[in-house]
Amino acid sequence: MARTSKQTASETDGVTYRRARTWEIAFSQMNNGSAMIFYTLVGLMSYLQNVGYGIAVAVAGVILTATRVFDGLIDPVLALVIDRMNFPFGKLRFFMFGGWLIRSFAILALFVWGADAGLGAGIFIAIYVVYIIGSSMNDIAGNMSSAVITNDPRQRPMVQVWATVYAYFVPAIFSILSAVVFLPRHGNEFTVEMLSETAITYVACSLVFQILALIGVSRIDKPESFAHLSDRRIKAEVSMRDMWDLLTRNGPFQRYLISGAADKIAQVVKSQAVIGTLMWGILQGDMQFGTTLGVITLLPGILFAIIGARYSGKHGSKAATVTWTWVGLIFATLLTVFCLVVDMRSVLGSLPLTIAFFALYLLLNGASMVGTVASGAMRADIVDYELDRSGKYLPATVSATYGLIDQIISSLGSTLALGAVALIGFTTVMPQPTDAPSTPILLMTLLLFFGLPMLGSVCTLFAMRGYKLTRSEMIEVQKRVADRKSGLEAAGPATSVP
Questions:
Q1: Contacts (Cβ under 8 Å, ≥6 apart) of 70
Q2: How many CA atoms lie within 13 A of 470 on its CB side?
Q3: Which of 215, 260, 295 lies closest to 30, judged by CA?
Q4: Is residue 6 situated within a structural domain?
Q5: Residue 484: is it exposed, middle or buried by C-beta count within 10 angstroms (0-12/13-18/19+)?
Q6: What is the Cα–Cα distance from 281 to 293, expressed in whole angstroms?
């Protein structure tokens, strides 16, 4: 008996979806990998400020907070430019590579050419602002690709699987390079020489990721991929009014903002190098264990991401987000209790305790993986919903408006982390892996490492209660968009109006 072939999403839903080749998806999301290399370097920025520019710990937190606010404010301006511009060869590659060039120059200037040269806080801030501009250009264009490359509900979550692989694997691998290779070579201290060597290596590696990403988006990076649903006899322009309309009238986007901002502030705090020093170096007594554990849990975590992508493709991004947020909340609670009742210095010396800690951390990491996949697919859904709602195709504007709120709220992350360590005694110097553990360090570390993510999970569950873009609703959105595009085909190309 002949096997009945499995129906495609287009056949099942009655919509002709736009699909991408697997290698295009994998390559296009390498822009995320390139960005995460720089993100890892920014995690070392507080150490660079202190040892390379003589900036006090408390002042360093204020500088990082202010510059993150600027990062959020510049995003909408750049997004409007990106959404308004069209090149015959496409615009994704132009802004992706242009942003990479700018951010690479700034990183080398900060970590290599200017460190320990007596330049002071003013020069540091000026160069860091340049970095932010390049970073925003690259990130906005890179984030656009996930919405543009496919709208197939089964394939779209897989785009986020690749993005998640790079988002987790790349910083973990490069953190290992920092902790296992560079840090020991410089006496296990964050020195100027160690930071400079790290930066040069990271920038060179990011170039490889960036080139492959440009290849991945080349087929879809063309003007017709960014068309609006306005009358094609009149060229639709994008303005600040569209961004304001998106923010105030797009209900699903508002709820997505609440969820994303709460999760991001927890992520920013947890990812700070100083928090990793507290958790792994001081409490566990083995700085290298933390980075090694992160990589080990990533391998099965990818399986969670694939399972989550399939779940999301079948049931929708909302269902996946709610289900796996609950799972993550439960395991974060269990892991917090474990760390409170067990002497953390004894974990590595006891096989049962090591296995228990590893299992809980693995499951928590897996749930986080699924949440990241669902969140990325959800943002792409919102781009298509906005096209249906307003007739404007605004992938850059959606990304940047989210970035604006995200950056303003999560800008507190660096200040919160540095302020928290100041409260437990580190007011003039940064914590080092060789410091002795104490009860205040334990409580503060657990609060920042697990407590904030748990609070973010609660906010996500609250926001999702009224989120209406379910799997069935997104099918109707795609049908309406397809019908309107068909109706505009006979109108001819767009022309500008006075």
A1: 129, 132
A2: 7
A3: 215
A4: no
A5: middle
A6: 13
Cβ atoms of 262 and 455 closer than 8 Å:
yes
Element (H, E) at 161: helix 156-176
Q: Which residues contact 169 (CB under 8 A, 6 or more apart)?
A: 33, 295, 298
The pLDDT value recorded for residue 496 is 44
Indicate the number of domains in the chain. 1
Residue 462 domain-assigned (yes or no): yes
**Torsion angle in degrees (nearest 10) through CA of 78, 81, 83, 84:** 170
Q: Tokens 């409007």 identify what position?
A: 80
pLDDT in tens, 412-440: 777 788 888 888 887 777 787 778 888 88
Instruction: With respect to residue 3, please indicate whether it lies within any of the assigned structural domains.
Output: no
Handedness of CA 153, 156, 160, 165 (dihedral sign): positive
CA–CA distance, 92 with 250 (Å, rounded to integer) = 25
Q: Inter-axis angle of helices 251-271 and 395-410, to 10 degrees?
A: 50
The CATH number of residue 378's host domain is 1.20.1250.20
Domain assignment present for 16: no
Nearest to 52 by CA among 178, 187, 185, 191: 191
* Spatial contact of 357 and 448, defined as CB atoms under 8 Å apart: no
* Residue bearing tokens 């989550």: 308
Contact 112, 46 (CB under 8 A): no
Q: How far apart are CA 291 and CA 304, in angstroms?
A: 20
- Residues written for the chain: 498
Complete DSSP assignment for 349-413: G-HHHHHHHHHHHHHHHHHHHHHHHHHHHHHHHHHHHHHHHHS---HHHHHHHHHHHHHHHHTHH
Burial of 203 (0-12, 13-18, 19+ CB in 10 A): buried
**Residue span of the structural domain in which 128 resides:** 24-479
DSSP 257-299: HHHHHHHHHHHHHHHSHHHHIIIIIIIIS-HHHHHHHHHHHHH
Q: What is the pLDDT of residue 1?
A: 43
Rounded (10°) CA dihedral 418, 420, 422, 425: -140
Q: Which residues contact 354 (CB under 8 A, 6 or more apart)?
A: 347, 348
The whole-number pLDDT of residue 498 equals: 38
Among the listed residues 320, 238, 37, 31, the one whose alpha carbon sits nearest the alpha carbon of residue 149: 31
**C-alpha 226: how far from chain center:** 23
Task: Give the chain's residues under pLDDT 70.
Answer: 1-11, 13, 52, 54, 56-58, 60-61, 64-65, 68-69, 72, 118, 230-236, 291, 295, 406-411, 488-498
Task: Report d(CA 259, CA 263) in Å as an integer.
Answer: 6
